[in-house]
Amino acid sequence: xxxxxFRMATVALFAASLLSGAGVVRARAAAPDAADxxxxxxxxxxxxxxxARLAIAGLSAAIVExxxxxxxxGFGYADVERNVPATPDTPYHIASVTKTFTAMLALRxxxxxxxxxxxxxxxxxxELADERIRVRHLLSHTSEGTPGEKFNYNPDRFEHLKAIxxxxxxxxxxxxxxxxxxxxxxxxxxxxGPDLKGDARWPMLGAANLARYPRVMARVASPYTSYGEGxxxxxxxxxxxxxxxxxxxxxxxxxxxxxAAIDRHALLGEEMQARxxxxxxxxxxxxxxxxxxxxxTDYRGExxxxxxxxxxxxxxxxxxxxxxxxxxLILLANSENLADHHYKIGEDVTHDLxxxxxxxxxxxDVSNGRGRFTASAPDTVPTTYSQAPSTDCExxxxxxxxxxxxxxxxxAHTIVPLDESLAIAYAGRYQLPSRVATVSRDGNRLFxxxxxxxxxxxxxxxxxxxxxKNRPWTLKMVRERGKVVRMDIHDRxxxxxxxxxD
Length: 502
What we know:
By secondary structure, the protein is of the alpha+beta class. The protein has helices at 15-18, 38-53, 98-111, 135-140, 155-158, 161-169, 173-182, 207-217, 252-263, 270-276, 337-343, 353-362, 364-367, 392-411, 420-426; strands at residues 12-13, 26-28, 58-65, 68-79, 84-85, 92-93, 191-192, 224-227, 231-234, 248-250, 295-299, 302-310, 316-322, 327-333, 373-375, 382-385, 428-431, 436-442, 445-449, 455-460, 465-467, 473-480, 483-491, 494-500.
């Protein structure tokens, strides 16, 4: 998504102790009979197993059926260090699930006759000079190359919708979120941007909202990531900003209200909603991955409408709807791994462990799924993996997980001791693109100061190459005439040369 130098503070934890049966924290807030629903029982068992396998610190879940919240529950920890459990009311950064709200705003304007989805986008965004790029191409991520011919998920292109929506409506996007969704649907634990922590820059949002938002932000789950096979490490929060493509903070309980409003057509009429949930096709008839703002997948004759959120590290989300069954699954996590295990393999919902388990438990006539996990004791984390026959979705999601895990293992470095003389040589101030950062030391241990003042421990994989566990960075220390003069930051193929100042 948007490139940023995220704030970091490393706290290494052991996944085994965090995710063992004794460490599981659950906060139930469901209908009285939800626990007795065999579908819920089957799904929650597999959900907890997946959470353990993916080393997710905390996760909150909601299932909506026929407009009612059937079940909500929290698993694990919103804050590990403080032993704060995750609950259905834990706020998370929902990342790109924000896009569904933005798409809804554009489609409402179209439904009202105020925005033509076939209009050239360059009328509002001059830099999109190709007249063939229509507004609908931005909504469907098909604006690149020959517009409408191929899908390429690109949040930067989607971001142009903000200028279009604000120009047509005459109102800031943030205010539209409040007026259209958050206030009418009583989504009181949702915040339109993490920067709303007490300042008065947005008086039009309302005094009551501005007073409440800081309280919500104070409860936001702490971010974590994982390193290697399962070490959980404290990560960094997303940037304090709000975009068309990301930035909304919410809870599964609030998102269940949003979901119910969608299904009762309180936000869009049936015709426009059906258009949004119809996948676009190329000129050759190839079905593309999206409709208008939503992924659309036809799985064994059942239409699945979905979106995921992925902040790189720290937060992710999965929102899956089965429109014909009036069933929805909402998952939010304070780790990227909820979405990362399918996102890294390919943007296909049948690569997602949670989605496939949900289908197996709730639409067995489609998935014909079998619960493949058995618990070692009642109400504990399932620990035994069965080789029972699997559905296609179960097979593809398991294959995606296996590939993802192998990539994680391959990306883990062997830590070598750093000589204290090298630690002394590397400690100092470095000029990053937007700030000065300090590399400090404690004996032979090194720490990188982030822009919020927190420290991220730096580890060595060789005498000249260092790395961070909570960011995919390799730091190569460069000497000239025996003196360290710069640090080259290698980040997924890109290199940023950082000059040493002293």
